[in-house]
Amino acid sequence: MRSSLCSGLALVFVTACSGRAVPDPRSAAEEYAQAASRGDGDAIYEMMTTSAQKSRSREDVKRLVSEQRSELAEQAKTLTAKDARVEAVARLRYEDGEEAQLELREGRFWITSSGVLPGGSRTPEQALDQLRRVLARRSYAGLMRVLTPSTRAAIEQDLRSLVSGLERPETLHVEVTGDGAIVTIPGGHSVKLKREGGVWRVDDFD
Length: 206
Prior knowledge:
This protein is α+β, with helices and mostly antiparallel strands. Helix content is 48%, strand content 21%. It folds into 2 domains: 2-114, no CATH class; 168-205, no CATH class. It has helices at 2-15, 25-38, 41-47, 50-55, 58-67, 69-79, 124-136, 140-146, 149-165; strands at residues 89-93, 99-105, 108-114, 174-177, 180-185, 189-196, 199-205. A hairpin with a 3-residue loop joins β5 and β6. The two termini are 53 Å apart.
């Protein structure tokens, strides 16, 4: 029930990002609290998103509310407490599976995490998920964003050195052995080449 409510809130907030006034998330929380305290399954169902309503019918929601009425009443007290803090979060999922996360602060949404923009992972699991996504996309730029500054700087320095050493390939010494070759690059790098079907390709480099 909580996830269904959060999904509903996210939908409302996302549609408000187009320049219209952003609704106060506390109002939605209070509306849910009132419905929960009454055990009003119909009201709670109406607050759910279309996708959430497809996963649970109105009768299913009413039955759950009836079965968990005492727990929902306790939830309602917590939501309406003076020290309760309401946080609004929106998640946008793109067609390629990437997600952008936004938080509502001071009446507008701010990007906190995005697969195409720098963002901070709040847990180790989120950092690993970002790494998986950029590797799946074969995204060098994305990979650089998820690395620590020191690791990123070291990799970029190595690549700059390799690029600089390859500026004049015709001057490099190439040791050819059959269909393999090794090239020593200024700066301490080396490149291994392999010939397949008459075409030379890079087999490895360091």
